[in-house]
Amino acid sequence: MISPLAYVDPSARLGKDVIVHPFAYIDKNVEIGDNCEIMPYASILSGARLGKCNKVFQGSIISATPQDFRWKGCDSLCIIGDNNTIRENVIINRSINPDGATRLDNQIFVMAKSHIGHDSYVHSRCVLGNGVAVAGGVEVESGCILSSAAILHEGVHMGRLSMVKGGCRISGDVPPYVIIAHNPAGYYGVNSHILTKHAGFTEAQIDDIAKAYRHIYQSSTSLFNALQRIENDIDPSDYRDEILRFIRSAKQRIVGERKLDD
User: Residues 19-40: pLDDT tens digits?
Assistant: First the structure.
């Protein structure tokens, strides 16, 4: 159903059973998959690629032009997967590069007045609270939670199943499975509720994760030595190795201002 009061460019490609409400705007060079719903006053701009069963609420702008001086007017993409909910007044910018894309995977809930900058990548099953600000070039891995008014600065990498509490300003990388809180932001424990209730981790596995982060955040040793201790003290596992790999490959400091050679 397409309201006669909506604007849909003739070149836009809409799938089956798409609902476009009055006063919505669908630009050229747009693809919208089956069973999507575009609410009144939402704008789906050039370069948007929406999968199936997405709902975009009032006032949101998908594939807005980048807010970056490096963008020189090229065409680029904003690619959104399936089963996502994008609430009121959300802005998602497309890439600054002609061969680039801002990406959201599947089953993501983006609450009102959030902003996702150019070339960022939000993996599946994430929740972004009201007024979250994600700068350009950020990666948020699957199962993460960003509470209301959290800010991720440019280039931040947020590890899987981690959580940032409301109002935190994050300028370093967030390791997997942790809770980050306060300003300046710091380690606040393991995200145990999500790990047990939604990711199927056992108590023994969570104990190992907590032990790893005690070495990193709650000992007086250097981060280099903490990683050595993790390898010696904790039996090999996918989650232990993920923690080690994430920290060793971090392009920025991890949250908590630790360095490999401290």
Answer: 999 999 999 999 999 999 999 9
